[in-house]
Structures are given as C-alpha cells and as structure tokens.
User: Which sequence fits this backbone?
C-alpha cells in the first residue's frame, strides 16, 4: 500500500515514514499539497491541517483514505474536512501505533465495503428473476417457518425481508455439524437469523431449536411438509426443481420430481418399476411429500 504524507513538520513526517515502512507501507513525504504531482497513485493520505491548501488536498483525494493530522479540534480542522470526504483524524501528539491502527481499520472497512457491494450485486442479479408472492414484510411476526421446494425462492423471500425491514443477516445451514448450537451461540438482537434445511434436524434437535427461537427474529426454511408448530408458517407454493436446472437433485428430490411429473401419465405399477421401488414405497413417498394424484 502506498502512503502520501503531507506534513511540514519534518521530524514527525520522517518518524511516521520509518514506522510505516517497517509495517510494509511505501511512503512519500511532501511539505504541502502544492508540491504534489499527479504522476503516482496513493492509497492512503496522511494530511496535516497545518499545511497550506490542505482543503484542496481533501477535495482532490476524497476518493482515497484520508486521515487528518491535527493540532487542535475545530470546525475548520475536523468538521469541514470530514464533510468534504476525509475519513478520520488523529490529534498531535499521537502514538504511531494508534495511527497504524486507524490506517488498518479504514483499509479493512474499504475492503469489506467493496466486497459487500459485490456480493450484494451478485445476489440481486441471481434473485431478480425469481417470482414469489408479495407480502407485507414489516407486518410479519417472527419467527416463521418458510416452506419452499426451491432454496433460491426462500433466499429471495429472506432478502426482500432484509431490504424492507433494514436489518442485518446471519445465515446458518442446518446440515452442518452442531448447527443448532452454532445458531444459539451466534444469535444477536437486531439481526435476522436465517436457518435453512430444517427438515434435516432430528426431533430432539428441532425441539431444542424451537424452544430457543421463541419471540426471536428467525426465519426457518424447510422443503418438507410443515408440521404443527406454534410458529406462523408460510408456503411459497413454488414448483419443484427439474432435471434441466443448474442444481443437482438429491435422490429424494429426484423421486419427488418424477412422481409429481408422471403420476398422472403412468400407472402406479409402471411408475414404481421405473423408479425401482415397490408400489407400497411409491404410496409412502406420495404420502411423505403430500402429493395428490388426480
């Protein structure tokens, strides 16, 4: 990372330069913005408010990380530059370690902001074509159990809820080991906890989870029939995955798809043969998936 130090106190500038060089930064020192040339790009600007034309420097570098080096706090040295685009300030005299901490903080913040924006754009592009029913998300009483045959439909529901209610997201896939314990430990107020694949949990795990999420901001997703619970349930009534989707079907999903698609075309005898199961197993699967034959 390249750092431009704009400071007219030479001893301070050189001290900063030595410490930042040892921390892996490459520094250039100038006495004022008047000495700056556009030949090089800098990631971080350490700008003393005692230098001439420092406000012009703020305006010029407002898309970079700017940390003001100030002698005193005032509207001119702090408030106005921050409004113009500076990111932070540190008051002289200061410890160089504190300055490095601020630099790393703003580096991380900028990196995560860019990543977050990229992920947000990617998710929006993936979900924008998914059609789900309209809901008044602000009036939904959580926790709720969301029944959806397609994971992306449940994802679309959750992200619409996040946008409407302006709340942060914590996601846990219940298929991972110790997922219930992780969900309990990770839960935070003012955060939506989204748990997918509820159908995978054993009865005792499900009971433990249900006891914990009472009166909490939680959305549970399942692709199986919703059993009687004390929580509000929403069925998105979406279609099944099909054999031309980009997702790999599990054996259960494949059997469910075949039964639903062909049960009104083939007899139960022929359909069970094609699936390699008995007629009794076919009947049990139909009951499990709540599939009604016309």
Assistant:
């Amino acid at each position: 990372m390249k750092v431009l130090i704009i400071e007219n106190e030479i001893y301070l500038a050189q001290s900063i330069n030595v410490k930042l060089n040892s921390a892996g930064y490459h520094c250039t020192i100038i006495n004022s913005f008047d000495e700056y040339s556009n030949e090089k790009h800098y990631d971080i600007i350490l700008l003393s408010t005692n230098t001439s034309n420092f406000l012009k420097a703020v305006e010029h570098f407002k898309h970079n990380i700017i940390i003001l080096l100030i002698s005193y706090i005032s509207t001119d040295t702090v408030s106005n530059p921050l409004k113009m685009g500076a990111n932070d300030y540190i008051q002289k005299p200061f410890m160089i370690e504190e300055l490095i901490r601020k630099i790393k903080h703003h580096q991380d913040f900028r990196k995560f902001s860019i990543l977050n924006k990229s992920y947000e754009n990617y998710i929006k592009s993936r979900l924008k074509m998914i059609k789900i029913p309209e809901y008044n998300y602000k009036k939904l009483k959580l926790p709720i159990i969301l029944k959806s045959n397609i994971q992306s439909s449940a994802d679309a529901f959750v992200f619409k809820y996040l946008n409407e209610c302006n709340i942060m997201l914590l996601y846990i896939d219940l298929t991972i080991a110790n997922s219930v314990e992780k969900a309990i430990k990770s839960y935070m107020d003012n955060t939506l906890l989204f748990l997918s694949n509820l159908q995978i949990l054993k009865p005792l795990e499900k009971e433990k989870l249900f006891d914990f999420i009472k009166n909490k901001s939680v959305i549970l997703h399942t692709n199986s029939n919703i059993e009687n619970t004390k929580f509000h349930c929403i069925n998105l009534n979406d279609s099944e995955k099909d054999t031309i989707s980009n997702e790999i079907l599990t054996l259960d999903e494949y059997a469910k798809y075949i039964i639903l698609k062909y049960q009104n075309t083939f007899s139960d005898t022929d359909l069970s043969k094609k699936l390699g199961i008995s007629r009794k197993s076919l009947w049990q699967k139909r009951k499990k998936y709540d599939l009604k034959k016309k």
